[in-house]
Amino acid sequence: MSVIDIKNLTKDYGDQKGIFDISFFANAGETVGFLGANGAGKTTTIRHLMGFIKPDRGCSEIFGMDCFRRAADIQKRIGYLPGEIAFMDHMSGMDFIRFMAEMKQMKDLGYAGELIDYLELDPKVKLKKMSKGMKQKIALVVAFMQDAPVLILDEPTSGLDPLMQNKFVEMIKEEQRKGKTILMSSHIFEEIENTCDRIVMIKNGKIVADENMEKIRTERSKHYEITFSDERSAKMFQGKYPGSKRSCNTVCFLMKGNTMELLRELNRYEVEDINARHQTLEEVFLQYYGGERV
Ligand SMILES: Nc1ncnc2c1ncn2[C@@H]1O[C@H](COP(=O)(O)OP(=O)(O)OP(=O)(O)O)[C@@H](O)[C@H]1O
C-alpha cells in the first residue's frame, strides 16, 4: 500500500520553473530517495506534501488524505525536516525543541533527549549563536523526536560533517527497522545509495527516473583501470574492448560479468596494475539518463 502518493502534481511558477505533472509514490516501510540538482523541484514537491502549497493541477496524498485539504492532520503524523529552517533566533535549542513538541502535542521528550545525546548537541546554546551544522542537528531532533510513522526530510545532511553524516545514516537504518516510510531529498548520490530502497530523480521539474535500488545494484557494471607495461600492449588491448578509453599505458572501461574472459585476455600482456570497482550510483545514472549531471 502506498503511504505517500503524488499524482500528476503541477505547480507552474512561469518561466519553466516549478514542477510539472509529477507522479510517484512511497509504499509503507519504504525509503525513497528524491534526487535532483539545485532548483530541480525537490523542495516544491515536498512543500506540497506538507500541505504548504496549493497545487495548480494534480494532488498529493498521505495515508489517503489530501495533503492540502487535510494539512493539519497530515502535519501531526509526519516527522518533517525543512530544507531551510526558519528558527526563532532568540530561543535556545532546547526552547525550540520544547516549542515544537508543544505544537505537536507531545508530552514525552525522552526520545528527543536520546537524540540530543546521540548527535552530541548542546541544546542550551541560543539558536542565533549556533553554526549551520548545529541548527541542522536541532532540525533532525525535531523531525525524529515524535517517532512519527512517516519522515519527510529535505536535504537532511546539509551542513553536517562526515562523522555526523554517518550517524545520520545509522538513524535512518534504525527508523527503517521500525518500519517507517521515508522520503528523503538529496543531491548527494552516496547518501541515497547507502540508505534508499528506491530512487526517484527529478530534473527541470519533471521526473526522469524511478528505479529500484536493488535493480541498480545488480545491474551496475564494474569499472576497470588497467595499466600495461608499454603503450603498444595498451593499444592492442584497447582494440579488443570497444568503448574503452586509453591514456598512455592505461586503459579504462566498463564491463559486466565475463571476468574469466578478461583474465584470459590479460594473460597475453605484461600488466603493471589492475584497479576494479563497482560503478557508483552517479555513474549508473549518468550512463542511463544522459551526460548531464543531475
Ligand atoms: N514561490 C516561488 N515563486 C517562484 N519560483 C519559485 C518559487 N519556489 C520555487 N521556485 C522556483 O522553482 C524551481 C524549483 O525550486 P525548488 O526549491 O523546488 O528546487 P530544489 O530542487 O529544492 O532546489 P535546491 O536543491 O536548490 O533546494 C526553482 O527554479 C525555483 O527558483
Automatic annotation (TrEMBL):
Belongs to the ABC transporter superfamily. PROSITE patterns: ABC_TRANSPORTER_1, ABC_TRANSPORTER_2. One of its GO terms (molecular function) is ATP binding. Keywords: ATP-binding, Nucleotide-binding, Transport. SUPFAM superfamilies: P-loop containing nucleoside triphosphate hydrolases (SSF52540). PANTHER family: ABC TRANSPORTER ATP-BINDING PROTEIN, ABC TRANSPORTER ATP-BINDING PROTEIN NATA. Residues 4-229 form the ABC transporter domain. This is ABC transporter ATP-binding protein. InterPro entries: AAA+_ATPase (IPR003593), ABC_transporter-like_ATP-bd (IPR003439), ABC_transporter-like_CS (IPR017871), ABC_transporter_ATP-binding (IPR050763), P-loop_NTPase (IPR027417).
